[in-house]
């Protein structure tokens, strides 16, 4: 209502409901699910509530959306990680795609063609140690598996046989 106070119980309740709608959206709920959970008449009502709440904050929703997407990607990554570590090649490929998307969201990948020149003391070169990123490590691991899928098994068997040989000589 136009003449209604901003602190009226009805307006406060509406703002709380809008915040709840945003929280559900952040958690990955669809607008239809939000409408059903919070009693909006349809998904358009839930959509309007989320948009109104975001607009009222006067913040760019992109950072919030980025954080929401990162949380989703992290959740997917955790769900697939065990299978990827076990050597399931399609899962490794999927994990790499998730990591690539995550790196793009965070701006970790430098665009090809950009050049940064660093100058050390007295104009000399800067010594830089390169450590492999997680994406690079997984890609190398996947390449190793594709090159010799039995490598890890051979190492495991060799390791077990060495343990057995050592146990033969242990005397209590």
Salient structural properties:
172 residues, 0% strand, 7 helices, 2 domains, elongated, mainly alpha
Number of domains: 2
Mean pLDDT: 77
Strand content: under 5%
Please report the distance between the alpha carbons of the first and last residues.
86 Å
Number of helices: 7
Please state the CA-atom Rg, rounded to the nearest Å. Answer: 27 Å
Helix residue percentage? 55-70%
How does the major sheet shape up? none
Compute the number of strand runs.
Answer: 0
Order of helices and strands: HHHHHHH
Task: Name the shape in a single word.
Answer: elongated
Low-confidence stretches: none
What does this structure look like?
The protein is mostly helical. The protein has two domains: 50 residues; 95 residues, no CATH class. Helices cover 67% and strands 0% of the residues. Helix 1 packs antiparallel against helix 2, helix 2 crosses helix 3 and helix 5 packs antiparallel against helix 6. It is elongated and about 70 Å long. The model has no long low-confidence stretch (mean pLDDT 77).
